[in-house]
Amino acid sequence: MMTCIMKGNAFKWNSVLRGFLESNAPRKVLLGYACMRRRGLNIDSHTLGFVIKACGLFMISVTGCEQVHSQVLKLGFESEVVIQTAVLKMYGTFGDFVSAQKVFDETPQRDVVLWNALVSLYAQRNHPYEAILGAHAMIAEDVRPNEVTVVSVASACCQLKALQQGKLLHAYAIKNLLGFDMILSNALIDMYAKCGCLSSARRLFGMIRSRNVITWTSMISGYCYNGFLHEAVAMFKEMQAVHVRADEVTMLGMVSTCAKMGDSELGNWVDQYIEKNGYMDSVCMVNALIDMHSKCGNIEKACQIFEEMKVRTLVSWTSMIQGLALHGHGVEALVRFSQMQREGFKPDKVVFLNVLNACSHAGLAMEGMQCFKSMIEEHGVDPWMEHYGSMVDLLCKVGLVKDAFDFIMSMPIKPDPVIWRALIRACQDQGEADLASQALSRLFELEPEHSGNYILKSNFLATIEEWDSVKEVRDDMAITRIAKRDPGFSSIEVS
């Protein structure tokens, strides 16, 4: 096609570049642009617009972006806000906030589209505080935020759990925007739900007459996110009753709800719904189903789904190993771990943590220590605190509490209270009074006012029949007004 227009003008070349872009061929756009420059053809704002978009799609490199940006400056387009907006978005594709902000700061005339590009970049790239600051600066420069701005700031409020800021945003939208479109309404519902204000989310949900799948999904996800699992299920059933077809995001939310509930019957029904409606082609969905069936107690079904997968990702292997660990199948988890590596998957921190947990559940001390050593020495993975905690738990479960204490003392990072509590309980079970006393001293140094530590100390002293000391601990709790907080709870599925 390029050969046919070699003698053509810039307009024809731009038409070709547009065609390449619309057919999702960004590499051809860049090749065509290079050909235009070699032939000395006129480069206008349309040409640069196509090239900048192609850079973001082709993901060439930050260096490539800088080269295109330099050409924008060289050709004198630094004052055209449309081109500068496109350049800002291009840098944003690579997460280069410094260059994006510099483009914004150097643009003399900033319209609402450019402001929205900056605010959206920060909101979408997990910089919510900067997104909110950008919106405030926007207002300070007398640029009026529109629906796009509000949607981006609502996302930032979600990330920060900034309910009060979200309410002010909602008030601004009511006062300054003529009616709410569906995108804005859905964003506000999601914001209220993620900030824990379900009453406001439900009220806004009720005010929408024509609800689309995103509206319903936002409420379902909000209930699930805040732990109102039965309400999430009821909302999904209500959605089915009004004949709104669920999409993949909706079903992922329902799978997550079933996993949290541990309801095997509901999980099987959701599984059948997903298969019936053709969502099993999604690797993400299949991974979620493996996790759900594992947490609902049906590890056989989880294994069956895993075996039937045509394409597996690292998440697939992680979910399977985690499920086997959860059910105490340590040997099987190690077999999957070895198989995963043979198939060319490199284990990450999450995989190693699940393997260590599998060894801990099954009491495989030697295998767990080898895995921990391999993680550091062969794979160069720096352990999280959870990895150290899993090793301590493993050593304690096989009766090696002295080794567990030595392991804690050799840790390159300061152990957290959870690790000390695990050791203390193991010492209590195995009659290691001296070690327990040392561990308790270190625990109280970390959390001198935690009620659970006093209960733990009292229970330990009771096991060694130091009744006077038990009374002293209880008296100390009464004097310092330390009360037991956050009582535990459990649930069972009946019939």
TrEMBL record:
The GO terms this record gives for MF are:
RNA binding
In which domain of life is the source organism classified?
Eukaryota
Q: Which residues form the signal peptide?
A: none
Q: Spans of the PPR repeats?
A: 212-246, 282-312, 313-347
Q: Name one Pfam family in it.
A: PPR
A GO BP term here is: RNA modification
UniProt keyword list: Repeat
What InterPro entries does the entry give? E_motif, PPR_At4g14850-like_plant, PPR_rpt, TPR-like_helical_dom_sf
Q: What is the protein name given in its UniProt record?
A: LOW QUALITY PROTEIN: putative pentatricopeptide repeat-containing protein At3g05240
Gene from which the chain derives? LOC120283905
